[in-house]
Amino acid sequence: MALEEQCSAPPRWRSVSLTHVEFPEDDLTGQVLAYISLLPIAILVGFVTLIVFKRELHTISFYGGLILNEGVNWLLKHILREPRPCAGAHSTLNTEYGMPSSHSQLIWFFVVYFFLFLYLRMHQTNNARCVDLLWRHILSIILLGMALSVSYSRVYLLYHTWSQVFYGGVAGSAIGIVWFFITQEVLTPLFPKIAAWPISEYFLVRDTSLIPNILWFEYTVTRSEARNRQRKLGTKLQ
Questions:
Q1: In a 3-state reduction of DSSP, which class is residue 94?
Q2: Strand 13-15 to strand 22-24: parallel, antiparallel, or no bridges (unpaired)?
Q3: Cα separation of 110 and 64, whole Å?
Q4: pLDDT < 70: residue spans in the chain
Q5: What is the C-alpha radius of gyration for the chain, rounded to an integer number of angstroms?
Q6: Which of 65, 91, 153, 157 is most enclosed, with most CB atoms within 10 A?
Q7: What span, in angstroms and rounded, lies between the C-alpha atoms of 183 and 186?
């Protein structure tokens, strides 16, 4: 009933700058949710940036899963062909179909995959100290809040129905679980060979799957190298 009332008296819409996401004019909640709904795009951009600067195989595989997830979403939308709510409410849409929600599917793929990475992959490689477990739990709560917020924003802004968002979340979660285990069991054992390919060496592609804490490793290696260079520079100046 609430949806029918919203459709019968549609609000005036405004776009977020430089994007096609629209929110009701003079609606602060809608404006905040419009920015939140851009999180999946920020995730994709973040992955491209990481790949360009880090060139790490697991990151590339994770991104490949996100692209696969988007392809599955496009296929499902064009098979099911369920329209979005309030047809014509938004003028800037990539497709008229709404089942399942691509935003919901992408964010839940990302969050579920990250959950598995935190609690299964990192559990195997790190000593589970209290501090480690604490930050994993905090990060998991933040990620869960992100996924719920993005999902809710798509309904509030009349881009999707609750069922479209729900099934998008189910599809994204299922694909995230499957892709995580494919990465772990099939692709990760191949990473050392892939990293040794001439083309991988040329583009500086690397495999860090055997390094327990990449942040600590990079920090200690960089600090050690900086001290060695500083020592050599000091020797030359004497």
A1: coil
A2: antiparallel
A3: 12
A4: 1-19, 87-92, 94, 123-128, 212-213, 234-238
A5: 22
A6: 153
A7: 6
